[in-house]
Amino acid sequence: MTGWRVLVVDDEAGLRHTLELILRDEGCEVMTAADGEDGLRIALAEEPDLILCDVRMPRLDGLGFIDRYRAAGGDALIIMMSAYGTIETAVEGMRRGAYDYISKPFDADEVILSLRKAQEREALRQEVRRLRAQVAGGRGFEEVIGEAPAFREVLNIAARVAAYPTTVLVTGESGTGKEAVARAIHRSSPRADHPFVAINCGAIPENLLESELFGHEKGAFTGAERAREGIFAEADGGTLFLDEIGELPQSLQVKLLRALQERRVRPVGGSREREVDVRLVAATARDLTEDVAANRFREDLYYRVNVVHLHLPPLRARREDIPILAQHFLQRHSERLGITTAPLSQDVLALLVRYTWPGNVRELENVLERALVLSGGSIGPEHLPEHVRTATSPFRLPIDGDDLSVKRRLPALERELIARALARTEGNRTRAAELLELSTRALTYKIQEYELD
Predict the structure, then answer these.
(1) How confident is the model at residue 408 (pLDDT cuts 50, 70, 90)?
(2) Which of 42, 59, 423, 426 could make an SS bond with 35 (beta carbons 3.0 to 4.6 A apart)?
(3) What is the pLDDT of residues 193-225, one digit of tens each?
(4) Which of the four CATH numbers 2.60.40, 1.10.1420, 1.10.3470, 1.10.10 does domain 406-449 have?
C-alpha cells in the first residue's frame, strides 16, 4: 500500500490517531477529518485513493457523505466503519457506492487486510480500464492507415461525427477504403457493441434486393420457403453500411427513403411493420449530384443520406502514404502466410510510389501479397507486376528544348494539369475543379481555351 493516500473520517479522536499510526506503518499518506462535512471538503480537494468513513458522525453522517461525494464526482474507494447495531446502515452504504465495511472494534490486521483487498480491487479496475481503452483504440480509426494531410482531414471529421447517429455518405474511387472508414465510424461510436451489417447494392439482383433489405414472409414469392429478417432488422441498434448506393434501383429508393425517415420496415409479403434503429453509412464511387441531375437518383434521398459527406482521396493523391501502407500490408500478410519478410528496399518503394494505382489501396495490397508469395519474403523489383515496374513518372513537365521561360511555359503546364484532373475524375468537372482549386466556371473557360472538351 506504499504511496496510497488515505483519508480517515471519524468523530473519535483516539480512533483517528490509531488508524493514522497503522496506515503510516504501511507506507500510506494519511489525512484525517472529524466529521462528514470536513471529510467531504478534504476528499474533494485532495483526491485520496481510499476513504475510511464512520457511519455515525455529527453534521454529516456516513450515508450523506457517500451521496454527496459521489454526486460531486468523487471516485475513491470507500470503506465504511460501523459499530454494533449499525451494520445494516453500513450495508446500505455499500448499496450507495461504498466498497466494503469493517466492524468496530477492529485490530490492526483486520484494517490492513481490508485495505489490501481494496488495493487489489483497484489494481484490477485500472487494468480493465487500460485493456478496454487498448481494445477500443485498436479497433477504431487507428486501423485506418494514412498520414497525408487531405486523408487525415477526412478521418478527423469522421472521428468527430462517429459519436452521433448522423447519416454519413462516403465517396471515392473504388478501392480507396470506404468500407474501412465506415467500420471505423461504427467501432468508435456508441453502437460499437451492436452489429455492423454491410451490403453491396450493386451486387444483388434487383428482384431480390428488396427482400435483402427489408426481409420477407414465408411464401412471399417463389422460393421463399421460410420467413427471413432483412439487413435492416439485422443491424437494429447498430450500423447499416450500404455500399454502392448509387446502384440502387429507383423503385427501391422510395422505400429506402421511407424506412430512413420513419424508422420502420415492412417485409415483402408482410402486413405489419417493424421499428428499427439503425445508423446509416452509405458509400458510392459515382457522382450522385450528376445522377440526381439526370433523374437516376432521387433528390430527396440524396439529401437524406448526404448529411455528412466524406470524400476519400485516391492513392495517387496521397503518395506519401504508399510506403506506410506497403509496410502495413507486408506485415499483415507475412503473419497470415507464415513468411518471414525483409523491409522493402528503396528501389521497390520508388517503383511503388511512381505507379498511379488506378485500383487504389486495394490494388496496392494485392500487389504486395502477390510479391510476397513470389519472393518468399525478400521482395525485389522483379517480383512486382510488369505494369508497376515499367510505369513512367506520374508527373513530367511538358517541356521540350531549352526554353525555360516561365511566362511561355505556364500555359502548357496549366493545360497538362487540367487534362490530368479531368482524366482522374473521369470527366467530372466539379470534382476536377476541386482538385485544381478552381471554380467550375473558370475550369469550363480553360477547357474551351485549351480545346480539351
Answers:
(1) low
(2) 59
(3) 899 999 999 888 877 888 888 887 776 676 666
(4) 1.10.10
